[in-house]
Amino acid sequence: MDEPEHDVIVVGAGNAALCAALSAREHGASVVVLECAPEAEAGGNSRFAGGVMRFAFDGVDDLFRLTQYRTDPTLVELLVTRSLDTMIWLRGQGARFVPIYGRQAGKVGGRWKFFGGLPIEASGGGAGLVQSLTGAARRRGVELLYETRALSLLWDGVRVNGVRVRSGGKLRDLTARAVVLACGGFEANAEWRTRYLGPGWELAKVRGTRFNTGDGLRMALEIGANPFGNWSGCHACGWDRNAPEFGELAVGDQFEKHSYPLGILVNGDGRRFVDEGADFHSFTYAKYGRAVLEQPGQFAWQVFDAKVLHLLRPEYGIQRVTKVRAQTLEELATKLEDVSAEGFLRTVRAFNAAVRGDVPFDPYTRDGRGTVGLEPAKSNWANTIDQPPFEAYATTCGITFTFGGLRVDGDAQVLDHDAAKIAGLYAAGEMVGGIFYFNYPSGAGLVSGAVFGRLAGASAARSRGI
Ligand SMILES: Cc1cc2nc3c(=O)[nH]c(=O)nc-3n(C[C@H](O)[C@H](O)[C@H](O)COP(=O)(O)OP(=O)(O)OC[C@H]3O[C@@H](n4cnc5c(N)ncnc54)[C@H](O)[C@@H]3O)c2cc1C
Q1: Considering only CA atoms, which of 359, 357, 395, 157 is closest in space to residue 259?
Q2: Atom 14, ligand 1: which residue's CA is nearest?
Q3: What is the distance between the alpha carbons of residues 31 and 22, in angstroms, rounded to a whole number?
Q4: 277 vs 443: CA distance, rounded Å
Q5: Count of CB atoms situated within 10 Å of the CB of 387
Q6: Has residue 295 got a pLDDT over 60?
Q7: Which DSSP category does 2 fall into?
């Protein structure tokens, strides 16, 4: 065979891909990055991300608990034990981090108190992270090809030798010693969502990029890669009911509405349907999008009274928000579009009567101020809804990314159906299956992409003795 044109091809130009490219370069490989989006829209979900990053001080327990003990022990061990080191590596690549004063902290007795185990975010959010990593990749000689869509893997039955792409209206075969797939899940593909997540998922809004349509997964499955993880599961949260079909870079993640633990959620019948205060939003929001999708009409209103309005996160203050305000509950009931006013008032009466007034309210700890004898219960941060003005925000389900992916080993190399390594093929980011099941702790996506991207890049560079 002729000498390949490149040592490593990386598919995608989000966080995982850029980490893979930088890492492969660090290990001496020549690297080309293929991105199907035009440069103005490149960067995938990583660019939409708020930029919060969860790395481990303590251990793996949170991920085990949240995934109902399904998470793959090898992968989660890698993710957790390498997370801090990878944050330091990212800093060495030019990424900058700042404390999350706005969303994950509040002032108690004049001092900032951080909650949810998330004190750090990328400076400039996900967009800032992508910008600094893209700049670093350019400076280090990584070639970036935009509007270049990977179509299929060049595979001789034994090893992957490159990628067939469409670029400028032409097909081209690019050859390489190794390929890293880091081109996201299938969240932006309505047909695949319906096929794998189930009926109704075609109706979800996509929080991020329109370009993650499952191409990388399809290409790998076509050559016998082993699917792994929670293929019927995804990360999805409450998202403005009138948000557009796909994410908008100018708005970023601000259509999300994550302060529901401070109020109640009601559906079209005016009924509550989840424990809004089961935990900090970081540990419930990613599964509550599904709960909203399951309600009649796929929407829910978040309702708050004056006691907590000053605690609402900054995203509640954006201009493009579906919000109503009223001075009485009866007036509010008439303003909640598509909601039974009678049902809503009945729910609030029952809720107010069930709130435990004997436990103090503390938004920064799991305060145990719950309800008594109510179904569903509210376990923490339960306050009566009785003090005007009242505000309510309409949400629907916004899908973030899909959990199903490829089976990889501890080197991020893709395995086939016989659990054998596919020579020359690696995967990172949303494409790695087996980490998230049912739920997700906020801030884990970017760190997972960085940990497995860095690993995949290094393994790909080494795969032919570079
Ligand atoms: C609104 C929002 C907020 C979020 N906030 C956070 C947060 O604060 N913290 C956190 O940790 N996570 C957050 N996440 C999740 C996080 O963004 C993702 O988990 C992570 O960025 C995924 O990185 P990735 O590199 O795997 O994929 P992506 O960043 O999505 O990159 C995939 C890339 O592949 C490209 N691509 C797709 N198909 C092809 C093809 N055929 N050929 C070439 N290129 C292709 C896409 O254009 C894209 O650039 C958020 C996500 C969203 C949508």
Answers
A1: 395
A2: 49
A3: 9
A4: 20
A5: 12
A6: yes
A7: P
CB contact set of 324 (below 8 Å; sequence gap of 6+): 332, 335, 336, 337, 391, 392
Q: How much distance in Å is there from the Cα of 47 to the middle of ligand 1?
A: 7
Buried b (16+ CB within 10 A) or exposed e, 390-400: bbbbbbbbbbb
Instruction: Note the residue count of the chain.
Output: 466
Say which residue the tokens 């709130």 belong to. 355
- The rounded distance, in Å, linking the Cα atoms of 38 and 231 is 29
Q: Whose CA is closest to 225, among 422, 412, 71, 409? A: 422
Ligand 1 pocket residues where CB is under 6 Å: 11-17, 34-37, 42-46, 48-53, 126, 149-150, 182-184, 207-209, 211-212, 215, 247, 253, 400-401, 429-430, 443-446, 449
Q: 443 with 450: CB under 8 angstroms?
A: no
Q: Report the amino acid identity of residue 341.
A: A
Q: Which two tokens stand for residue 415?
A: 């395995």
Task: Give the other-Cβ count within 10 Å of 404's Cβ.
Answer: 24
If we measure between CA atoms, which residue out of 435, 440, 430, 460 comes closest to residue 45? 430
Q: Does 60 score more than 70 pLDDT?
A: no
pLDDT band at 58 (very low <50, low <70, confident <90, very high): low
Tens-digit pLDDT profile for residues 379-425: 999 999 999 999 999 999 999 999 999 999 999 999 999 999 999 99
DSSP 224-275: TBPEES-TT-EEEEEEETT--SS--TTTTTTTB---GGGSEEE-TTS---S-
What CA–CA distance (Å, rounded) separates 384 from 374? 13
